[in-house]
Amino acid sequence: MAKKVITFGEVMMRLSPPGYSKFSQATSFELAYGGGEANVAISLAYLGVKATHVTRFPNNSLGKAATQFLRMHWLNTEHVYYGGDKLGMYFLEKGAVHRPSEVIYEREGSAFSQIKPEMIDWEDVLKDADWFHWTGITPAISEGAAQCCLDAIKTANKMGIKVSGDINSRDNMWKYGKTMQEVMPELVKNCDIVITSSYGIHQILGLVEPDDKFRYSAKRLMDAYPRIEKVVGKTRKSISASHNQIQGKMWNGKEYNKTEMLNITHVIDRVGTGDAFASGLIYGLMHYDDDKALDFASAACALKHTVPGDVNLVSLDNVISLMGGDTSGAIRR
Amino acid sequence: MAKKVITFGEVMMRLSPPGYSKFSQATSFELAYGGGEANVAISLAYLGVKATHVTRFPNNSLGKAATQFLRMHWLNTEHVYYGGDKLGMYFLEKGAVHRPSEVIYEREGSAFSQIKPEMIDWEDVLKDADWFHWTGITPAISEGAAQCCLDAIKTANKMGIKVSGDINSRDNMWKYGKTMQEVMPELVKNCDIVITSSYGIHQILGLVEPDDKFRYSAKRLMDAYPRIEKVVGKTRKSISASHNQIQGKMWNGKEYNKTEMLNITHVIDRVGTGDAFASGLIYGLMHYDDDKALDFASAACALKHTVPGDVNLVSLDNVISLMGGDTSGAIRR
Amino acid sequence: MAKKVITFGEVMMRLSPPGYSKFSQATSFELAYGGGEANVAISLAYLGVKATHVTRFPNNSLGKAATQFLRMHWLNTEHVYYGGDKLGMYFLEKGAVHRPSEVIYEREGSAFSQIKPEMIDWEDVLKDADWFHWTGITPAISEGAAQCCLDAIKTANKMGIKVSGDINSRDNMWKYGKTMQEVMPELVKNCDIVITSSYGIHQILGLVEPDDKFRYSAKRLMDAYPRIEKVVGKTRKSISASHNQIQGKMWNGKEYNKTEMLNITHVIDRVGTGDAFASGLIYGLMHYDDDKALDFASAACALKHTVPGDVNLVSLDNVISLMGGDTSGAIRR
Amino acid sequence: MAKKVITFGEVMMRLSPPGYSKFSQATSFELAYGGGEANVAISLAYLGVKATHVTRFPNNSLGKAATQFLRMHWLNTEHVYYGGDKLGMYFLEKGAVHRPSEVIYEREGSAFSQIKPEMIDWEDVLKDADWFHWTGITPAISEGAAQCCLDAIKTANKMGIKVSGDINSRDNMWKYGKTMQEVMPELVKNCDIVITSSYGIHQILGLVEPDDKFRYSAKRLMDAYPRIEKVVGKTRKSISASHNQIQGKMWNGKEYNKTEMLNITHVIDRVGTGDAFASGLIYGLMHYDDDKALDFASAACALKHTVPGDVNLVSLDNVISLMGGDTSGAIRR
Amino acid sequence: MAKKVITFGEVMMRLSPPGYSKFSQATSFELAYGGGEANVAISLAYLGVKATHVTRFPNNSLGKAATQFLRMHWLNTEHVYYGGDKLGMYFLEKGAVHRPSEVIYEREGSAFSQIKPEMIDWEDVLKDADWFHWTGITPAISEGAAQCCLDAIKTANKMGIKVSGDINSRDNMWKYGKTMQEVMPELVKNCDIVITSSYGIHQILGLVEPDDKFRYSAKRLMDAYPRIEKVVGKTRKSISASHNQIQGKMWNGKEYNKTEMLNITHVIDRVGTGDAFASGLIYGLMHYDDDKALDFASAACALKHTVPGDVNLVSLDNVISLMGGDTSGAIRR
Amino acid sequence: MAKKVITFGEVMMRLSPPGYSKFSQATSFELAYGGGEANVAISLAYLGVKATHVTRFPNNSLGKAATQFLRMHWLNTEHVYYGGDKLGMYFLEKGAVHRPSEVIYEREGSAFSQIKPEMIDWEDVLKDADWFHWTGITPAISEGAAQCCLDAIKTANKMGIKVSGDINSRDNMWKYGKTMQEVMPELVKNCDIVITSSYGIHQILGLVEPDDKFRYSAKRLMDAYPRIEKVVGKTRKSISASHNQIQGKMWNGKEYNKTEMLNITHVIDRVGTGDAFASGLIYGLMHYDDDKALDFASAACALKHTVPGDVNLVSLDNVISLMGGDTSGAIRR
């Protein structure tokens, strides 16, 4: 029977000039929607998992259109709440070779940032779920969002639902009066699976002498927070905006494992590739052993680089085929 | 020698689904920029007047792109100020026949709304100008915007520059703690030309027994504020979203004048038609007598209904030809 | 509490040259999906009704995309069945003024046409439903489709669920060996509400001396099939492909009622306007008396003419406003 | 057996901003090709006539693309000659309601304008042909073009092939040193059928006291040039750029005939409607009596107003149906 | 004098989401047409060869549009036959890097599949021709198509016209009751030139102990079918969907020859590259010795990877330049 | 304070089929504008330099639109002169891998080519300027253009304004009766900075025994024309149309310097990359020492390959970052 995953976080309208046009040339924007956690949910839905995304949109045609995007991509949207004034937005100018992509956010004061704990009955939301996933972006948005996230994690803990957190917060996101170090530890220590980098671990633990090696950082995180079963990361080598390399890595308390490096020679859309990795990891851990789960995550991540938009729309077949070593991309008829 | 006009007000990014698509169908947005006062300035520039628009944008690629739009359409942008976080936006779904167009604003907290009087040296801005134009939207945006507007009007008065105001504010726009009735009278009474409706006059004067007839309302406004030379309005008959009729009307203290009704049987874009009227009126009063000025304003307004976007891009020839009674739209080779 | 409606029928991929281009000019097609019954379901969903559409698609990316279209437009798709080879398609070239629109179907052998009664458990599908709607297209597609439709109607009858049928079948659609006259009467006589024309009634009853007046035909249909409570139709006056007039009419056994003629002076997309009428009627009969229900149906039908695609995406507010006589289409901010 | 028509004239690249955008807004152009005589040939080809267009293009990818356009629209292109430097072009900004369409030509020095009589063996070109058609634009382009046109007409006369000329030249087109009055009479007097206006007749005949009535002008033309069998014209009433009315008229030496006025309430593309009239007339005269031929011409002309591009792509069925009085534009399935 | 080639086979409508969008994201399709044999004919036409394609389309606007595509790309279409119900179609989602392209066919019951031997008079079709080309797809479509193909080959044999066959049939295409092994040998053994792979040879000959080396397989095919003069193939190395390598190889009964490997580092459209190879081979064998012919075929094949659509639209200059070793792609002004 | 640069030269309309489509497939053109010198001015404007471009356009909507393009991209256009008939144009078909881009010019008889020395008051134009830049294209266009260019250079010399010339003229451009060798030396010898290649130097000096090494050629040029301070060039290695490598080189009379080779693995638009190099060099020489100036020029050049259109729209930050060795193109949030 299909597994069921719950995700929680903001979904933004994504506006991008067509092709490789710059903002200074655009006379139209391509319109999509995205957000780290919803990206994970949708990718899982395309892999065959039942996925519900919990979020909040303004109660107008734009909030409805954002919901429609989630529905179109197979999500259950019964826990989308409506209210507030504004849909968070981001603008993406796509780079190439030596020219970086540029992202501009307009998300302050969004309907999601005004979310309050009393708006969500997590026991109801998490009923029948197998997994809850959150990211480090959510607690950075507002005190309400952080509190909702903590409530969700604790409720999931109580209900015996696995919790994974993707801890990739940037310091400059925290603008509502609390610091990452004040808020994150309580959230991270109740996770079963943590996806992060050495740098992320050092930020959370407030380490003064950080360790560059992922495996040692991971060990220190698991020492600090014993509930955590696995710490998972990926190495991205950005040869250029058009050519990236990806390698997954995992410390599960016993073994340190790394995947083959995957070589994405013609990047189509790099946004959301971390979320594709997270979704691949969740799917993998649900269906395979740790090694294959990591391979699955890396393959999913690599494939996302070829899909326009925030979301990994590839099929289970595509991921399994790449995971099995077929990098040929040979046409399917 | 070409006249010089200064306008002041917010410019928003305008995003609209292509053609007659609804928000619930859109996968791209057409991108333009607009704002009542800048619309007036640009239309005047296409008629051959030198026009400078004063506004404030965030100091990022989007704020630059908005400036580029003004430059492309011939405005002087040396008094565009940069700062703040956010570009005001509006979303426009175009209606047809019985289906209304729908507009959604996301302009709270915009760079313009955070404008402060000390940011603008009006004596410098208004140097060599012949005319200053503002609208009732600006004082509704924020206390700072209202104060800047008042400063501009008073400086213009002092410098002997004509002032026109387009008083079409809606009550539900006033959210920063002051009411229209507290703020507007001081602004209106220093104008030379006022463009408004009976309803607008009643709002400003706080009349309890309003008068439906424009000419009597206009007279009362000029009685109350003796600086005002002319009160100008237009009647719009909305037969449907696709078919409007327009008629200009003016009370100049001596005569009440109305134009022929112009019949816009195939509306292409109704947004900004009021601004086209205002720009036509300003051009008209600069170059013709009152009667012809009103004809020019009506013709400019009618033509705007056929131009996509907020702004009236038609040529002086086009307006003069329609003002002269040629409604045939016959092809020019 | 929101009502729940079930619809059943084929959904086709709709491919149309952009704008007013002809097939002989097209280098791209706009892509949408549509089918009489799903059109009704989606329109009802936009009005706030819970709607489930039952259909069958090939189990490939195209069948999935068709399902995604239904989900995006708020339908419950848990009773979409997958199998067979092919997605039905239709090509639409949009006409204007004296130039007719042209429709080409490629639906033979579609997944839906191969549907079999044993694939659907109607008691399960219709659980908690308030209404079942079908159209005369479905029994014309294949023996299996006709049988499924009959099963649905009979199950609905048994479960006390209202049944409406839109009987607008064309003789040239019946290609699988049975005639309209052999199949339709059994389906029609178990309906509570029938939407049709005088001509449709004559076809079903096999009348040799047809009556041009809708009210008399309607009476004859209700005499023949006493379960029917109301017979509803509309008059379309096609002044040109770009200008249509619409008037609803209903015989409810006691009164004959007609709505005001609505004048659609600038048709955007005429396809699916009959389905919009049907969905408006269903909504109306659920929430109003017969007279207002008919007004609601006519208003919904008129509004559809301004929405691109097969489906009426307008809001409840839009319909109520037009039903109340506001034909101005004045902009909503 | 299908009739065969030969046409001769320049074909230009046509570049137009999308939709109703103005030149000052365009970031792309829609690309098509057109020219009065080729427009006639293509329209005839869509009606089932064999049509060959004779012209000259530069021997590069643009000249090839222009040829491909003619081939795509069913013309025989074996008499397209290659050479010279440049493809003639025109830019079209589409107007609406009171806003005129604007056309800018860049055709000087085109490959066609450099055509020379020795490049064309008219006896070979006209072999098996039933009809030769030219327009007044061709002799205005260059001395070589005028001479080729005269050669064609005289050869056709000799070979017993009907000749029709559409005499709608504008004085401001004649830039190569000769005037219309010097060149045209020789061309016109060898025609069998002349399509023109009262004004055109006066220009050709150099009348000082012109006659407003078409029938009298036509008579004078036929008196002057006895070879002419019929003089045909149309009245266009341009209510606006979006609404035109069309009426055909013909003097055949015996009777003066006018068609019903056709009411084109929603003009899509007005360019080439005169050519559609000419093609309709040619088809009509080949297949019907004079009265019906004129009806056919008017119907073809009216239908062209709804087809984007220069060329009338409608089918014989469409024209016959409108000619028969069906103005409903009702959808064809 | 230009050579003349005849090809025979189905042409399908090709619908593909724009850019790298997936089916699950598409709201429009790019529209083109393609089919292995017509692709060969068009490529030859761009190289300067006279080419006629023989096929069958439904007698409606879609069948006409398909014919227009062939005409636009310079084919002689006088042997396109009309009838039947349906135009074959295929849907193409373009992959990148590790993500495979996906093709979905909807061609069953197409007008072409219903073709019958009596519809084509091959002696008339092949009159004046120098070459006949077919592919292994055609006999897999239907018994009628297979029979027509055999008739064509035998007529060509009789008339002394060279016959080339591209034998790349897939087993899962054969659905009409006959197997590849029953039908193909008769067709292949009457060819002069066979394009195929080792695998293809083994399928045709029903070899139980296949030989991996192309040269030995080729020899066995020529031993079995002595009419065959040359067996030609290519090696494709699919490094990824975005990066392919191509190498031509030929056994002509005396020598085994291979070309340099061509490195297509940025694939734009991989579909039809095999057909480009075949057309290059035919052109090459018509104009060069075997070695240069193979170089020409490889260069044509490599260039096709950079052209959107099924068809190789490059010029003779382009192929000759690459054949001569210029891989720089340096801009031509 | 921002530096001020003046450039002089023709600006053409640029029309290109979308994406990688060939001319033979296009049904629309992307519209932009470009010209070597204006490209330099715009790139400098994006780097923060004040830039004025001097040119001439026809006095119609197309000439205005070209001016609007310059204004939108931040240029001062007060010295755009209007007159003449025609806007120069070029058509660009974008190549990939082994397929070359193809450029077709239609610029003969353009408004710019008819420019006359008396139209420009160079003392007025160059007032307050720091730099004047021209290219070898301008003197090839017409005698008037060459004379204007010489006037500008001499006036700049007199006013103490630096002069840079980009000498990349092709022999086949010189069509008005003078040869490159007659005209160029006078222009080149009054430059302070010359950008060229060994080949360019040999052409100008009329060397019979050219030297392949750039440094020796440069030395000879500086020996011949002692005013020249630096001779600058770049090596382009065109691995394919999609993959280029760029290296800057400079002889400043004392040292010969070369930059690192920059590897542009995914070319988006190669047109205007030489102009980007020139603008980078000018900016660099204004703000850095020679070595860093050359690095800046190379980085600017490399980045242009990723920007659609003629013009380098990247920011100062982007160039500095690449100049500093960051080739990662990592996303900026």
From TrEMBL, chains A, B, C, D, E, F:
<dbReference type="InterPro" id="IPR052700">
    <property type="entry name" value="Carb_kinase_PfkB-like"/>
</dbReference>
<keyword id="KW-0418">Kinase</keyword>
<feature type="domain" description="Carbohydrate kinase PfkB">
    <location>
        <begin position="3"/>
        <end position="311"/>
    </location>
</feature>
<dbReference type="InterPro" id="IPR029056">
    <property type="entry name" value="Ribokinase-like"/>
</dbReference>
<comment type="similarity">
    <text>Belongs to the carbohydrate kinase PfkB family.</text>
</comment>
<dbReference type="GO" id="GO:0016301">
    <property type="term" value="F:kinase activity"/>
</dbReference>
<dbReference type="InterPro" id="IPR011611">
    <property type="entry name" value="PfkB_dom"/>
</dbReference>
<keyword id="KW-0808">Transferase</keyword>
<protein>
    <submittedName>
        <fullName>Sugar kinase</fullName>
    </submittedName>
</protein>
<dbReference type="Pfam" id="PF00294">
    <property type="entry name" value="PfkB"/>
</dbReference>
